[in-house]
Amino acid sequence: MEAVVVDVGSKLLKAGFAVPDQAPSMIIPTQMKRMLEDGSLTETSLFEEATVDPVVRGFIRDWDAMEDLLHHVLYTGLGWEMGNEGQILFTDPLSTPKAVREQLVQLMFETFNISGFYASEQAVLSLYAVGRISGCSVDIGHGKIDIAPVIEGAVQHIASRRFEIGGVDLTKLLAQELGKSNPLVKIDIYDVEKLKEQYACCAEDDVAYEKTKQSRQEEQHTLPDGQVITIGRERYTIGEALFQPSILGLESHGIVEQLVRSISTVSSENHRQLLENTVLCGGTASMPGFEDRFQKEASLCSSAVRPSLVKPPEYMPENLTMYSAWVGGAILAKVVFPQNQHITKADYDETGPSVVHRKCF
Amino acid sequence: MKYLPLSWTWVHTPAKRVTPAKMPPKLCSLLLLDQLIKWMLMTLIIPKRALDLFQIPKNVVKTSDSDKSKGKRKLYVGSQALGYRRDHMEVLSPIKDGVVVDWDIVDGIWDHAFRECLLIDPKEHPMLLAEPSSNTQQQREKTAELMFEKYNVPALFLAKNAVLTSFASGRATSLVIDSGGGSTTVAPVHDGYVLQKAVASSPIGGEFLTDCLMKSLESKGLTIKPRYSFKRKEIRPGEFQTVDVDFPNTTESYKLYSQRVIVSDIKECVCRAPDTPYDEKAYSNIPMTPYELPDGQIIEIGADRFKIPDVLFNPSLVQTIPGMKSFAETAPSVRGLPQIVIESINKCDVDIRRELFSSILLAGGTASMQQLKERLEKDLLEESPQAARVKVLASGNATERRFSVWIGGSILASLGSFQQMWFSKSEYEEHGASYIQRKCP
Q: Span of the secretion signal (chain A) (predicted)?
């Protein structure tokens, strides 16, 4: 039986059997609804209950909800049978605390009784998906942005950076902006999320962005409950916020600048290799116009070596940026599990949860 | 909210969640803080391997808000925060001449490290701190107080830098030359204890060499533009131009800090220790090495490549660098590195001198300069007594040299026999902070 690869994000959970060059078979929202009576937790909203986010800013926080979610994914979604569990590979975001990793291993071996486990960092996996082992991965997700230089499969923690801004902050910004331009319309946060996915885009450069502020080009959009709103320049504001974080009210440099600074902390012999193999991944990075804007900003970088993006290979599915960590995990699973480099049940029984730090890195 | 199993055979006891408070100290990792002058390293340890290693520059930034009546300042810690230019932002360092002067800043740095970099709760982790070899009793007591009262650590130990470096190389007796950012310290270690009366130190460290290089480059007419002060604009499609951007509210200390970062990188890339003492005439025709500055300008560095590292061996060279005359006047009696080493060994007992000569360890950031080990060995062979066999050891990996104190601490803290030597919280409450002198010699 194939190994299962699970990539848990703040917004979407990607899971499937490890068949590389295919999209994951399950892409479901991570958000769950709580039900008070006895019964299973599902993600579909049948009752008006509070929503639970088991994954906050990339890290797993609510373990009970996580357990139920994984149960649904593995047994119902992927068709595992109880008593005949297989092997599983998880992806970790950057700077995962050790306690979180240990708890995940414990959960998998003791509650789910799996036969083999492996965990790897998302930055490394995204590079594997495009066929590289060294490079810089820029992961712009729902809950966080990770910039991680990787040299020969090892993440350079000294130079890597993590920002606590992501798609969720852009959604809030869009809600705010729409509230200003359409004061009479009340929009639900889920609808704003959908609007963001549909309409957000990036201006070509900051001069073009300034122009959009003046233009009156607007579109009408009908919400599911019948209300009509107009969307004009707010679409560009969202895209611009990644390059000028002052729009979000944060004091930091734009994303390209952060990338260059983080790479300059690594020793200079690797600069060229890192900058020329930059990979963009994450849902927010698939905004139309983002890549072009990124390239443009990169060419404004003063030094001779500039960031340049890697083109994904042709045999990879479309939309690779959305789940490149999953695809990388599928590739890794094909290598790690047959060679017995993973954590087996016997290892776990002998050493306990801390075996994850020794065997998986 | 639990999901009840319908038909399932549990192999282990169900839902055993180990809460962090119950984790025994052996399973949960030990934290090691290393107070090097320039860098502070924090990590959760596994012996001989730094899995998550974070470097936080010791300089911290504060903003002074002129309209705040209380005079409260906001601290920004870490290279990520320091990299962003803010108005009225001053760069401060809590340590002057090896002594901590501002405990608030140190507190801020530790807080940032625990909360943001390592993402742990200090209550759960025993703490091993590395301290300079000539630390005062007062500083140690203050450290213990801060750790126990503010962070509520369960146990603490203070180990000397030199001892930890010695452990990292697997020796109980050696002479440790720790050449870091702020100063260079030479300390003999015998059977795991530092011989206090033989410790010698010199104020010449990495920062000083960076300053020398900066003054030397300025005197040649090269201006180092800090990263925030320029921007590239596209004036025509395909053609670019570097434009200067002016920020009038930037403080001098921040500008100096930004320039230092760039010059420090130049120094690390380009400088090499010369094989023979530096001579103006001999090195005047040396081929120049190019280096690209962040704004795209390419500079050529020739004789300075060798002159600057030679300041370690011959501090009187400083007088030839224009702009550094003030230093030459305040500290005329600073001796070169080989002389300090010989002096330190001569202050030790005659019996151990031979052993010290044959195991001289190099540690610290400045010690990872190329060819330093060979030059030092050569100089020491000339100055040492004939019968002594001089051997200078340094690990080949530059990262290991820089973090050897940390690696030593990692090894020490994971030894089984070390576990009873911790200074625990209950002992602190019973005997007070001064007990640390007895527990951590």
A: none
